[in-house]
Amino acid sequence: MKTIRQNFAVSFNYDVAFTEGLFNPSNKLFSSQIQVTDNKPLPKVLCVLDEGMLQYHPDLFDRIRRYRDESGSRFQLIGKPVIVPGGEASKNDPSAVQLILDAIEEADIDRHSYLTAIGGGAVIDVAGYAAGIAHRGVRLIRVPTTVLAQNDASVGVKNGVNVYGKKNFLGTFTTPHAVLNDFEFLHTLDMRDWRAGISEAIKVALIKDAVFFSELESNARLYQQRDMEAMKSLIHRCAELHLEHIRTSGDPFEMGSSRPLDFGHWAAHKLEQLTGYSLRHGEAVAIGIAVDSVYSHLAGMLPEEDLERILELFKRCGFDLYVPELEHKLDQPRQKESILHGLEEFREHLGGELTIMLLEKIGKGVNVHEIDTKLYREAVGVLKSFEKEPA
User: What is the pTM of this model?
Assistant: First the structure.
């Protein structure tokens, strides 16, 4: 028997940049990401735009066209953008991916062209999936336009779409060419989308950075007042912590079963499904984190004082921490309509051993591999009672 063992390493590099007025002609950030080669045709850029975002920025593609013309014409702009529905509707509809793939084929986009996705996290997920499977990968520039997309969903290497009623059942690890965060897009967000991204900042602070958690507590009132400087700071630090974990955890492509950055997400993903995606992802994450935090306390891990701070911060930021779907078939964890079935779906998605991130204290998470469903039922009861308390 003969064996040839292959072993090689690949280094990935990409910028996550923060700016304002990305498509103002004086702003060279976008054009600087386009690699122009002498004696070769200018690279093509195909835009995928979030339909919901376009309601507030109807002239966006015209601005991109003017930007191309006034910034030295460093790229060929495909004259017709792909417009897909915003939110989870795009991830639930297979035709959205097909629409992007059709446009890639029609425009003769190749591996040295650029697919530029501009929108919320769901639209960027769909576009990233299409970019990852077309030609086994075309260059992807992400331009996230929501708080959650800028501080979490768009800074890493994952993307996916929902199939079989399961979150991100199909997907790839597609390293972006660049992530360009333009804070100007945040001004037109409704309050739900402004708030939703805060939950991901609370998440990463809880498992990695107690000082950041204290900063979030101090600024809770400012977030409610839509203070832009406070939100910029939140986005930057949250993105920094996510990128640091991806870079240093030793498992950027999730070959193992431990996913600390998915703290609270087993319940969140199931809640999105059970509510027919009427909950924003960030809203569901807030509830999922609250459930796991209460469970951590009931299991004798998290001090009561820390739990109170966590729940109070969510309330001060305007989150609801209870929805009726939390109790639906709660005593029947094997039923797919039960929130607790999300644990099995999460285990399946991990590819083996169930691994849940819980809390020992604010700033320190710990992995567990076994859970007590009775304690989770108690945790739901605690949240239901908490929501009835006066603010």
Answer: 0.94
Confidence (pLDDT) at 72: 80
| Cα angle 302-308-313, degrees, rounded to a multiple of 5 | 115
CA pair distance 127, 1, nearest whole angstrom:
44
Query: Could you tell me the two tokens for 272?
Result: 């999105």
Give the Å distances, CA to CA, from 321 to 317, 360, 384.
Answer: 11, 21, 8
**N- to C-terminal Cα distance for the chain?**
71
The predicted model gives 246-262 an average pLDDT of 77
Q: Which DSSP string corresponds to 306-333?
A: HHHHHHHHHHHTT-----GGGTTTTT-T
Residues ≥6 apart with Cβ < 8 Å to 223: 194, 195, 198, 230, 231, 234, 317
- Predicted pLDDT at 390: 61
In this predicted model, what pLDDT tens digit does every residue of 100-118 receive, in sequence order? Answer: 999 999 999 999 999 999 9
β-pairing verdict for 356-361 and 364-368: antiparallel
**pLDDT value at residue 254:** 73
Cβ neighbours of residue 268 under 8 Å, at least 6 residues apart?
A: 281, 284, 285, 287, 288, 289
Query: pLDDT value at position 258?
Result: 62
Q: Per-residue pLDDT averaged across 267-289, rounded?
A: 95
Cα separation, 206 vs 310, whole angstroms: 9
Alpha-carbon span 357 to 348, nearest angstrom: 16
| Greatest Cα pair distance in the chain | 72
SS3 of 63-104: the string is: HHHHHHHHCCCCCEECCCCEEECCCHHHHHCHHHHHHHHHHH
What the block records as the tokens of 24 is 């103002």
Can you give the pLDDT at residue 223? Answer: 98
Asked if residue 163 has pLDDT above 80, the reply is yes
What are the distances in angstroms from CA 179 to CA 96, 99, 175, 182? 22, 23, 10, 10
Predicted pLDDT at 123: 97
Q: Give mean pLDDT, residues 22-26.
A: 96
Q: By CB neighbour count within 10 A (0-12 exposed, 13-18 middle, 19+ buried), where does 170 fall?
A: middle
- 3 state DSSP class of 221: helix
